[in-house]
Amino acid sequence: MIDSHTHLDSTPGSDAEIVARAREAGVTRILTVGTGADSARAALAAAEAHDQVYAAVGHHPNSATGFADEQLEELRELATHPRCVAIGETGLDDFRDYAPRADQERAFAAQIGLARELEKPLVIHTRAADDDTIATLARDADGLEVVLHCFSMPGRLEECLGHGWWISFAGNVTYPKARELAYAAEQVPLDRLLVETDAPYLTPQPVRKERNQPAFVVHTARFIAERRGIAYEALEEAVHANSARLFGW
Questions:
Q1: Residue 70: other Cβ atoms inside 10 A
Q2: Is the pTM of the predicted complex or chain greater than 0.90?
Q3: What is each CA distance from 167 to 78, 152, 193, 223, in whole angstroms?
Q4: Cα 63 → chain centroid
Q5: Which residues contact 233 (CB under 8 A, 6 or more apart)?
Q6: What is the pLDDT of residues 29-47, one digit of tens each?
Q7: Neighbours of 122 (CB within 10 A)
Q8: Coil, strand or helix: which one is 178?
């Protein structure tokens, strides 16, 4: 199994312990995410230290205040690291008032351009901004590999698939009240599906009282396999193939 999105620097225990627990659970690849310059450096350091860890580097919309050319150049330098396989997470967030919308849009546009320049996949965060996020991607990210991290738009699934975007489900798909999200996980073509933890957040239902970690992605994968009526091994094989095609690891 793979964990396509985690924040190692926010997960309990040392990186070595986290990776070891993931390996014991059968997780063979981890994409850890930097959401600003400092966390991007930490993500790259973890990727350098552990063979099964790779990094995405980006500037999260909630920390986009004052984003300018200086931040873009710093991000470009980090993104050229050989263990960096994606740009992001980036996008729009109208749920939390942490950064002015104009700054979020500037950072989003810059990272779309950087993904195109470096020919790397683009990892998207969107919250309470679905219309604008989809419109921006449809207009500006044509031809890019786009990953909708922690997919939260079940009512827009067909539209997102129509653009050829990747759909990545986190632990919240397992929650009893997330019926529409679980139904979406049944409908996504197997060759466009990814799973993730978003650790340390969104711990899957079977271990929900615990702080999330990459090892727990197997619970999300088992839930989706059961909902789709397929063997866990079949889902695991598909997700491995999808992530290898997308991230080139």
A1: 9
A2: yes
A3: 26, 10, 5, 16
A4: 17
A5: none
A6: 999 999 999 999 999 999 9
A7: 28
A8: coil
Distance CA 44, CA 55 (A): 6
Residue with tokens 């779309």: 112
Q: Which residues of the chain have pLDDT under 50?
A: none
Phi, psi (rounded to 5 degrees) for 27: -85, 115
For the record, the structure tokens of 240 come out as: 């491995």
How high is the mean pLDDT of the chain?
A: 97
Could you give the CA distance from residue 9 to residue 44 in angstroms, rounded to a whole number? 11
State how far the Cα of 141 lies from the Cα of 109, in Å rounded to an integer. Answer: 9
Euclidean distance between CA atoms 109 and 164, whole angstroms: 19
Q: Which long-range contacts (CB under 8 A, 24 or more apart) does 222-231 make?
A: 223/173, 223/174, 223/182, 223/185, 224/169, 224/173, 224/185, 224/193, 224/195, 227/182, 227/185, 227/186, 228/185, 228/186, 228/190
At 129, the amino acid letter reads: A
